[in-house]
Specification:
CATH topology: Rossmann fold
CATH superfamily: Class I glutamine amidotransferase (GATase) domain
Strand order of the largest sheet: 2-1-3-4-12-11-10-6-8-7
Radius of gyration: 19 Å
Distance between the termini: 44 Å
Number of helices: 7
Shape: globular
Number of domains: 1
Largest sheet: 10 strands, mixed
CATH architecture: 3-Layer(aba) Sandwich
CATH class: Alpha Beta
Number of strands: 12
Order of helices and strands: HEHEEHEHEEHEEEEEEHH
Strand content: 25-35%
Length: 260
């Protein structure tokens, strides 16, 4: 009996440390801001995933054994790391990009933006160029109500009227989730035509850098095939509080459990 208890105790300890995840589903988080990712890692481990962390200042391990790679990089994305993540994804991996994975710091890594199928033109945001503003209330709007990622074990508490930016259709009431005091990125330009499946739009009202106006764009979240693998992107994630939101946590988990 003592031996059995010892084995069980060791298994529990390994699970806490992120080893021995069920089905070998180990997740790597590549980051330059860790506090938000600590919250997400706690949820992933509770769901039976092992989680490893690697900073952009460190050398990447072999990515082949990982079930998914989560990228959460605010500043510059070193080209060598970006290219490794691209190869991993195209070979069959899952890459989940969160928040500032698509932001001005990535302009110096053009291969990354090409991989995502996104451009961020310089200029006046009011004329279609890229821009950002923090301290805004970001509303993530479900544009794919029949998709597993947006619906599985997700219960939305809010509704909003939304007029799509990429599809000609009347405004309609849709499910949404709110992220107070967040950061928005406007005018992500897609360069891959219709290869992306749009999952979420966003609504926010800006008052400072982007002018006193309401933005409504089909850019809050999407999924795209990349070689044999998949790219996922979601705009929320500016603060720890956003990752504490159980709806957002579940959306990320659904990217891992989705069976395309």
């Amino acid at each position: 009996m003592k031996r059995v208890l010892a084995v069980l105790g060791l298994a529990a300890l390994l699970a806490t440390l992120g080893y021995g995840a069920e089905g070998g589903r180990q997740v790597l988080i590549l980051y330059d801001e860790k506090a938000q990712m600590d919250v997400l890692a706690k949820r992933l481990r509770a769901d039976g995933y092992g989680v490893d962390f690697v900073s952009v200042k460190e050398t990447l391990p072999d990515l082949k054994p990982y079930y998914a790679v989560i990228v959460f990089i605010h500043g510059a994305f070193p080209a060598q790391q970006a290219e490794a993540v691209i190869r991993y994804t195209q070979a069959g991996g899952r890459m989940i990009g969160l928040h500032h994975t698509i932001s001005s710091g990535k302009v110096k890594t053009p291969a990354w933006l090409k991989f995502l199928g996104v451009e961020m033109p310089k200029g006046d945001p009011l004329k279609g160029s890229y821009g950002w503003e923090e301290g805004v209330d970001l509303r993530l709007v479900n544009l794919a109500p029949d998709h597993y990622i947006t619906t599985h074990d997700v219960t939305y508490k809010e509704r909003t009227d939304y007029k799509r930016s990429d599809v000609e259709e009347p405004s309609r009431t849709r499910e949404c989730v709110d992220f107070p005091d967040s950061e928005v990125y406007v005018n992500h330009q897609f360069t891959d035509d219709k290869e992306k499946t749009i999952l979420y739009g966003f609504v926010c009202h800006t008052k400072k850098k982007l002018g006193d106006r309401t933005w409504m764009q089909d850019r809050g979240g999407w999924v795209k095939r990349a070689g044999k693998g998949w790219i996922f992107y979601f705009m929320p994630g500016h603060t720890v509080r956003e990752f504490e939101n159980p709806i957002f946590q579940q959306i990320v988990v659904n990217c891992l459990t989705w069976n395309p």
